Every structure is written in C-alpha cells, then in structure tokens.
Amino acid sequence: MFTTLIGTADLAARLGDASVVIVDVRHDLAQPDGWGMTQFRLGHIPGARFAHLDRDLSAAKSGRNGRHPLPDPAACAAVFGRLGIDATKQVVAYDQGNGVYAARLWWMLHFSGHNAVAVLDGGFAQWTREERPVSTAVPAVAATTFAPHHVDSKVDAKAVASSLAAGSMLLVDARARERFRGDVEPLDPVAGHIPGAINRPFTDNLEADGRFKSAAALATEWRALTAGRGPASIVHYCGSGVTACHNLLAMHHAGLSGASLYPGSWSEWCSDPGRPVARGDA
C-alpha cells in the first residue's frame, strides 16, 4: 500500500490494475475553468479519470469561507464514489508536476479515513520526461460507494482565533515568503499572515526537478523548523487550503503525522476585518 508518495516506475508497473484508481487533478489558478480538463483531453496517464479542484474538491464559496472551501463529508464521499474509489482501491493522484493540487485530494481522502492514497512524485511532468505511456482515451468509470471514516484533523477559524493568546497551536503558512510577509497579495483582498504563524513555503519540500526531498531530509528540516513541537500541536494553512496540504504530505512522508489543516486558510481569515493581521517576517 502506498500512503504518501509513489514513483513513476511503481505506477507504470500497475497500469491496468483494476484495484488502482488514478486521478488527474491538474489545475491552473489563472485559468481555473478549463485548463485542467483541456490538458487531460490532450493526454493523460492511461486509465486516469479527471477531478476538478473547484467543482469536485471544493464546496460553494460564500465570500466568507475562503476560495476553496472544504466540502462536507457527504459531498466528499459522493465525489469519491463517482471516481470509482472505495475501501478496496489504491488511489494515485497526480497534477502537472510538484504535487500541490494532488496533495489536496491526498489529504481529503486521508481525512475521510482512506489511507491507500499516494501522490505521484514529480507528477505528469516527470512521467512524460521519462517517455512513459500517455493516452487520450477517457475511461469508463464504474461508480461505487465510498464510506468515510474521519481520522485526520482540521480546525476552523474560531479555534485558530482562540489559540492565538494561549499559543496552543503552531501555525505554519505554506505560501511564498513575499505573500507571508505581506509584500504582495495577488489573490486575496488583504496582505499579510495570521499573527504568530511561521513560514514554510511548500516549494521547500521539493528538489529542483519538482520531486520531493527524501523522507530523512524532510524530517530534519521539519523538526528544525518546528523546534521539536509535536505534530498534534501544528496547524497548516495557506491561501485557500490547497498548498497547505503539500506541507501536511511532506510531514506525513517524513514520519511526522498528526498535524491538522485549517481549510479556510488566509482567504477565509482575512474576509473578517475583525480578525488580526500581521506583516513582516515575525
């Protein structure tokens, strides 16, 4: 069973295996409506089916719940069932390269109690660099029933706010450093970060080729960053609850499981002018 990452060779050896469900979650925030599906139709890993970040892996936006709200458990289960995922399936998620969108599906399945899910290390970019097979055929998917069992943790804005004075949570922001500092903000109406948070851009989990660093290297880096705090006190966030999942995946791969996600993230936090905002490196 693969529970964090899977390499291209291991996936290639399992093509055509009915117990493996491959999900293509390629996405572009600048072209959210059609880019991913267009790329899927142009070519994908044989047998893959497509899941859209906004339509399948997010709930409706209210203007106060972030840019990619987490669907409720029943909605998640319905999507997974439509994708052909049940308790017997090994799921492999991939995106265009670095795993940032695939990690969202990875976390949602783990949150729902399905551990047999892994992100393709290096994604479609690595797959095609190695000249592995690509198909334009859209597979017929037999829908099934997915039964969720909640095991992973998430927190809401109220819990984050109540933790600020006590320091009971270590908030880790996965956005780029300039966004964390509040120097720029290309997506949300307010720049900055949640007070007390530290910054770990998700790209720090990767080697130059877009594949993840080794589990040992990630463990060393994450332990140094969090100053030995246990994963149970760590809460990850980002702009909208997507790239934060990459940090959760990196910690899990490093053997540091048990951290939580704040799904609403900065886009939800900053939608309420009454919530505090910090800027700069501290």
Topology, element by element:
Layout: E1 5-6, H1 8-12, E2 20-24, H2 35-42, E3 49-50, H3 73-82, E4 90-94, H4 100-111, E5 117-120, H5 123-129, E6 153-154, H6 157-166, E7 170-173, H7 177-181, E8 198-199, H8 215-225, E9 234-237, H9 243-253, E10 260-261, H10 265-269
Parallel strand pairs: 1-5, 2-3, 2-4, 4-5, 6-10, 7-8, 7-9, 9-10
Commentary on this structure:
The protein has 282 residues and is of the alpha/beta class. The chain has 2 domains: 5-129, Oxidized Rhodanese, domain 1 (3-Layer(aba) Sandwich); 153-269, 3-Layer(aba) Sandwich (Oxidized Rhodanese, domain 1), CATH 3.40.250.10. It is built from 10 helices and 10 strands. It has helices spanning 8-12, 35-42, 73-82, 100-111, 123-129, 157-166, 177-181, 215-225, 243-253, 265-269, and strands at 5-6, 20-24, 49-50, 90-94, 117-120, 153-154, 170-173, 198-199, 234-237, 260-261. The strands form 2 sheets. It has a 5-stranded parallel sheet with strand order 1-5-4-2-3, sandwiched between helices. Strands 6-10-9-7-8 form a 5-stranded parallel sheet, with helices on one face. Strand 7, helix 7 and strand 8 form a beta-alpha-beta unit. Helix 4 crosses helix 9. It starts with a strand and ends in a 13-residue tail after the last helix. 44% of the residues are buried.
Radius of gyration: 18 Å
CATH architecture term of the largest domain = 3-Layer(aba) Sandwich
For this structure, the CATH topology of the largest domain is Oxidized Rhodanese, domain 1
Q: How are the strands of the largest sheet arranged?
A: 1-5-4-2-3
**Strand tally:** 10
Order of helices and strands: EHEHEHEHEHEHEHEHEHEH
Uncertain regions: pLDDT < 50 for 5+ in a row?
none
Biggest β-sheet, characterized? Answer: 5 strands, parallel
CATH superfamily assignment of the largest domain?
Rhodanese-like domain
CATH class call of the largest domain: Alpha Beta
Question: What is the terminal-to-terminal distance?
Answer: 41 Å
Helix content: 25-40%
Mean pLDDT: 95
Q: Which structural class matches the secondary elements?
A: alpha/beta
Question: How many helix segments?
Answer: 10
- Domain module count: 2
Shape: globular
Beta-strand percent range: 5-15%
